[in-house]
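User: what does the whole thing look like in 3D?
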Amino acid sequence: MSDSPQSPDFVLLVDCPDRPGLVHAITGVLFRAGANVTSNHEFVDAETQRFFMRTGCGGALDAPAVSAEIEALLPAGSLVQVRRVVPRRIVVLVSKEHHCLADLLVRNAYGELGSELLAVVSNHENLRPLADKFSVPFHSVPQEGLTREEHEQRLQELVGPMNPDYLVLAKYMRILSPGFVARWPHRIVNIHHSFLPAFVGAKPYHQAFHRGVKVIGATAHFVSDQLDEGPIIMQQVIPMDHSYTPRDLARAGRDIERTVLSNTLKLLNEDRVFLCANRTIIFD
Amino acid sequence: MSDSPQSPDFVLLVDCPDRPGLVHAITGVLFRAGANVTSNHEFVDAETQRFFMRTGCGGALDAPAVSAEIEALLPAGSLVQVRRVVPRRIVVLVSKEHHCLADLLVRNAYGELGSELLAVVSNHENLRPLADKFSVPFHSVPQEGLTREEHEQRLQELVGPMNPDYLVLAKYMRILSPGFVARWPHRIVNIHHSFLPAFVGAKPYHQAFHRGVKVIGATAHFVSDQLDEGPIIMQQVIPMDHSYTPRDLARAGRDIERTVLSNTLKLLNEDRVFLCANRTIIFD
Amino acid sequence: MSDSPQSPDFVLLVDCPDRPGLVHAITGVLFRAGANVTSNHEFVDAETQRFFMRTGCGGALDAPAVSAEIEALLPAGSLVQVRRVVPRRIVVLVSKEHHCLADLLVRNAYGELGSELLAVVSNHENLRPLADKFSVPFHSVPQEGLTREEHEQRLQELVGPMNPDYLVLAKYMRILSPGFVARWPHRIVNIHHSFLPAFVGAKPYHQAFHRGVKVIGATAHFVSDQLDEGPIIMQQVIPMDHSYTPRDLARAGRDIERTVLSNTLKLLNEDRVFLCANRTIIFD
Amino acid sequence: MSDSPQSPDFVLLVDCPDRPGLVHAITGVLFRAGANVTSNHEFVDAETQRFFMRTGCGGALDAPAVSAEIEALLPAGSLVQVRRVVPRRIVVLVSKEHHCLADLLVRNAYGELGSELLAVVSNHENLRPLADKFSVPFHSVPQEGLTREEHEQRLQELVGPMNPDYLVLAKYMRILSPGFVARWPHRIVNIHHSFLPAFVGAKPYHQAFHRGVKVIGATAHFVSDQLDEGPIIMQQVIPMDHSYTPRDLARAGRDIERTVLSNTLKLLNEDRVFLCANRTIIFD
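Assistant: Here's the predicted 3D structure for the full assembly of 1136 residues, as structure tokens:
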């Protein structure tokens, strides 16, 4: 879970077709560049035969040069990034529920979020006082009287210029259109209140109650153009029993929703999440 | 989880419409009958407004008389049982996988199963030596050359006369027809290798791999005429990561499958499971 | 977990020597008083042979009369309470860590705490702005230049007149003297950052790191005059691996500390916690 | 959890002082030797500044040559192994409890153990029929009339010539003397029925009951000359409540004991466990 004792200054991220000698070749570039490797993870996905690598480095590094040198070693279709580790810029979208937002605001206030929280955007007004308490900009984009396209257009006009790395749906209860999602490929993260793929869609706690499950969960995933079908990043579950009403399930679920969401942001901030088909590779 | 320090000699089971004074009235009958109550659970389901009660009693008891007296107090549509606590009679159905069966056989051999294991029945031959090791009768009913109906007819002819309380599907990989299921209402228990309702049907571990879930599970449920839709009795999950192949998922899943199945049999043996709509009430 | 769909108006709490007929006798009093029983739990502790009962009732009730009538039925040494369900009054004691306090403040602000949060008291100043954000009174009682006895005397003078039901130690990092604890018998609740009895005392995450455990936990318990030895109310654990530094352990632990603490307050507010020797009986 | 789709033919294991360029240098040797790397894990322990690496390779390899070449690159005090992946040879020591042994025997019978199970050794006779069922050699070494030293001498004379890699204490209830342990440094694995360091020593379930914990656990660890103080390999826990007697705790605990033990053997068979101070590094 850690690049401890201190975080790396740079991370190298590689996603390329597998072939012999990759680790040796890539670490050779890093060695010659004087990089001080503090952590290293590799994985070859058996199904796609792609190689994934994340290397944390301390100290100074000529990132563009290292990146170019590594890219030159690899076949076409390889993705290479050497990134200075700076907090990821996020905009948080919410509707009316406060628990995930409050958690992010508190972590942000105490320097534990890891992300740079640019703004909170909502289709409602009720969470404005909460954001205000923590001096985080709050923007409401009401949907009344607007078509979905018009509403999303206003959202886009608002958040686009903020230039976030990720849009974080922290209980944003409107479905985003494929058109909107396409503008933010793998850059929208959602917390869904079930252990997907169980209970896709609306009111998962009511669904869970009527199905009589003995376990409920929360899932953080990238948003794709298929509802609740995007790559899963993190899931957590808790046991249930027959005495839980849907309201009790929702209450119990809120604790894991916020935990899953903030841990997911930590993974994204530290560049530990790779995409592979509709799955994720997590180097933690 | 216990009627400890010793198990009760009798259990009273009540499932009836709720109304004031039920606990007082029912415990009055028990008190006058000289029953020594060792444990007591009640629950009112808010949705159906039904009252459920399980009371463990030590000592001697005129079970039919107590049962009749309680029944006389309750409205029509009430279910009352006063049962001497004796092991439930089970027949275990398997296909080719050994892990759940082996677990049941070992527990049975050491007096820890709680059930009376009448026989093992399979549509294959390969597990016969395992049952033989533990001197439990093994019957194979091959399906080759038979229609589903013919095969199930032979199964029924074999297991019917054994007079089991429950048929336990311990990785029995054929789907039972609604006609067969109807003969054993809420008396067939299945262990399914996913956290239902995720991954209904065949090859759940392959489905789980391709969906990229971070948690897998096992579910024990009563079999209904809808595939994998019957009331859930128990579920357990374990965390996963991207490095698990479907084969690894299956391996990890086997440990929870057998644990969930044997714990479910314990609940059934101790009459801790009530049905309520398509849900279960579990008094543990 | 619930008296749902609505909470009870009254709860009856009984803790007495076991003997036959208790449930019948007690529920008879409730029935004749016209109480509408909405939930009922009983347990007999095998070791102490004491009987514990919690009954939730809706509607109006002459609480003192019912209590007296039940008490008259029971032997000496019985504890009977019939309490109108109103939020428990709490004072929260903190030192410098914000995460548990922030969680309580957010829940309080949104009506989800269940307790009546009277004030926050600290031996430091740094959390004052956090309490201020949520308009909860904050009092600091610095310890500099004071003996333990003097400091505790000031604490007592501050919190005594507030008349709280419980003092909640939400990462209060000073050990309270037996004299202070004796003034609040079973009315001080602490969140300890380990799965007690492992890692008693200071710096449990450092202890956990050096012992190389693969699981860490948090424990909510009543404070007794033996350090970290009081009755345990709730525990939760999370898996660890070798890559976690003490700082990572602390970070991961914070999420379960606050969850365990707020769930413990829920249990206390709903009068679900009974004491039995140095153990707790939890009716959830 | 996997070197899948197929297991590696060789593993390289390195434990040495950290310094820049290690991964590049070591993978260079492998590359030049034509090794087909199928998995790779590295970790630097911040406290000891030691570097750990496990690399799985497919295909043919001149193991001694590769090992020598890598060793030549590294400073004194480095440990290098290039091992053909063959099952680890184990002798299982038991006393009277059957559940862990039965689990190992079943897995062994179906080719799922991973280890080569040489023999079962006990200080009692009662488990002989169980071992016999699965045609595994069983030896009893009764302790009656013998001093601890004499008994351990007979054990040593029995198991020494079998030349096992590990002695596996699968509920062996005698404490081994430091002298015996010193003969098998980090080669004795024990399953302890608590989440160590809680409840060291005898009767942990009784200790757990009296302490009133809400979670119990099992711990697999290497045996050192300090009772229950050796490096922890794996731990698992399950929730408890007040209704569990010590007997119930023991029953519930058996399921996790056997799971933890068999998963630990899998880690050892695959050479995924490194020692670091009194901790373990687990590459899974």
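In plain terms: Chain D has two domains: 10-84, 89-282. Chain D has a mean pLDDT of 94.
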